[in-house]
Amino acid sequence: MGTHAMKIAVLPGDGIGPEIVTEAVKVLQVLGLDIEFEQALVGGAAYDVTGEPLPAVTLELAKAADAILFGAVGGPKYDSLPRPKRPEQALLGLRKELNLFANLRPAIVYPELAEASSVKTEIVAGLDILILRELTGDIYFGQPRGIRTNESGDREGFDTMRYSEPEIRRIAHSGFRAAMKRGRKLCSVDKANVLETSQFWRDVVIAVGKEYPEVELSHMYVDNAAMQLIRNPKQFDVIVTGNMFGDILSDEASMLTGSIGMLPSASLDASGKGMYEPIHGSAPDIAGQGVANPLATILSAAMMLRYSLNQDAAAERIEAAVKKVLAQGFRTPDIYQSGARKVGTQEMGEAVLAALKG
Ligand code: IPM
Ligand code: MG
After folding, report:
1. How many Å lie between the centroid of ligand 2 and the Cα of residue 358?
2. Whose CA is nearest to atom 10 of ligand 1?
3. Residue 189 dihedral angles phi and psi, to the nearest 5°
4. Which of the two ends of the chain, N or C, has the fewest CB atoms closer than 10 A to its terminal CB?
5. Ligand 1 site: residues with CB under 6 angstroms?
6. How many other CB atoms sit within 10 Å of the CB of residue 197?
7. What's the rounded Cα separation, in Å, for the pair 297 and 303?
8. Ligand 2 centre from 59 Cα, in Å?
9. Strand partners, 17
10. For residues 95-121, average pLDDT
């Protein structure tokens, strides 16, 4: 990063977003790094003030920053707004405008939390997989889409699933490169038995795979992948898949780990610039109560240091501190088991700060 300060755009958003982002910022501040933070409104919080979920100033700040720390967006009070005004559009807009096509969603089972999983402990103990989701294409962004009246006079809804070759090639390369750094196994998930888009996806992934002879490439239909994730998740190392299948499978994978409150994510462009967010969302039901788990956001900050800011040692310090607080028995309600030390958002953040110092 040279000598200039690293600039982080902080976008807390809605629901529990502000509470958890506050703790992650505190963690980033005690590392002794030259980081400047600038905050902006996003999602419903931005809509309330400006009438737009992604105001131009927020987008400009995100574009100018070295990395973005994102909390969460959305809430019931915004669900009936017209689609362009809904908080989710901020997330989709940031992904598209910043070209954040590679979404890394690791699912790791911490030994202390293996019993909190809804799946049998022996199935998930030691799990460490990475779901790599394509994030700027597919049926999420394909045109045309809409609700119309068809030739028979019936109303119908329609969307377009679409992937271009360059879009598939770049995410496939990301998948193979990630696999090279891990267990050298890549499973590409599609629905090639039914969908043209998926058949093309599979052909392109196979072609890219020729450049990575050391990686063992396999292919799986998405319905089978959904089943295999529950039956035997440890068979996977890296899963690469399209935008919609990745959305669904990553939520499923999160449940293997015991708490969605523990999982960070990174969304990267071709140069490694990225946006970092917990995968859990805004949790309006517990917002403002000080009970949300800040660890997914704190771990997202660690991913930021590693992938965008070139600060591997600092990332490892944070990850070690999180492991330490879990070993010490600190638990927010979402991961609480009897006998543990039940704490709130701020106390959990303070425990991580103490672990970093100690
Ligand atoms: C996610 C979320 C988003 C998505 C929503 C909020 C638009 O579910 O990040 O997984 O579907 O991508
Ligand atoms: Mg999702």
Report:
1. 36
2. 247
3. -105, 130
4. C
5. 88, 91-92, 247
6. 21
7. 10
8. 22
9. none
10. 92
> pLDDT tens digit string along 279-313?
989 999 999 999 999 999 999 999 999 999 999 99
pLDDT in tens, 177-187: 999 999 999 99
Residue-level length of the chain = 358
Predicted structure pTM score = 0.94
The pLDDT of residue 1 is 47
Q: What is the CA radius of gyration of the chain?
A: 20
Average pLDDT, the chain: 96
Position in ligand 1 atom list of the atom nearest CA 92: 7
Cα separations (Å) of 121 from 43, 185, 221, 324?
37, 23, 26, 21
Omega cis (within 30) before 144: yes
295's CB contacts (< 8 A; 6+ apart) are 261, 262, 322, 332, 348, 352
pLDDT digits over 26-53, tens only? 999 999 999 999 999 999 999 999 999 9
Q: Which domains does the chain have, with CATH numbers?
A: 1-101+263-358 (3.40.718.10), 118-257 (3.40.718.10)
Q: Is 163 helix (H, G, I), strand (E, B) or coil?
A: coil
What are the angstrom distances between the C-alpha of 289 and each of 22, 36, 190, 258, 348?
14, 28, 40, 22, 14
Specify the ligand 1 atom closest to the Cα of 243: 12
Closest CA to 67 of 299, 262, 280, 307: 307
Residue the block writes with tokens 């911490």: 110
157-178 confidence digits (pLDDT tens) = 999 999 999 999 999 999 999 9
What are the pLDDT digits (tens) for 337-354?
888 999 999 999 999 999
Average pLDDT over residues 199-227: 98
Q: Which residue has the tokens 């689609």?
A: 83
Give the model's pLDDT for residue 47: 98
Q: Report how far residue 127's alpha carbon sits from residue 5's, in angstroms, rounded to the nearest whole number.
A: 37
